[in-house]
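Protocol step 4 of 6: structure prediction from sequence.
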Amino acid sequence: MTVSFQPPVRDTHPADAYHQAWSLLEEQQPREAIALLDPAIDVQPQSTSLRTLRAWAYFQSAQLKRAQAELAALVEECPTDVWARFALGRVLERQSKYAHALPHLRLAAVMSGDPEHEAAVLRVERRLAESGAGSFDDLV
């Protein structure tokens, strides 16, 4: 017998949807989280927290184009959002778009000083060097 997730029939308050979706993502259930977040975002389309969580869910479920679109919008709205910028870089990296990923990863690393962010920069620079993409110092 297969049990599948069914989104709740009743309307869920956006804050409740956020907390439930967060729990689902911690349990590695991104599609179920998206099912909760989409209606909440319809109610509060400008909610950065809901959209950020949905971007994480898209990333976890390998819906990379959707994650990229959501994260690009978040970065455009708030260029200092380190998490969104780093996540955008990672999404681009997973799509092998290294030249596009590098500026976002570099900015996230500089803004945060996080060793994980710095490691991502080195990893993408190495991939670019291995691909023979030429000088990646111009990719700022």
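Step 5 (inspection) to follow. The chain has a mean pLDDT of 90.
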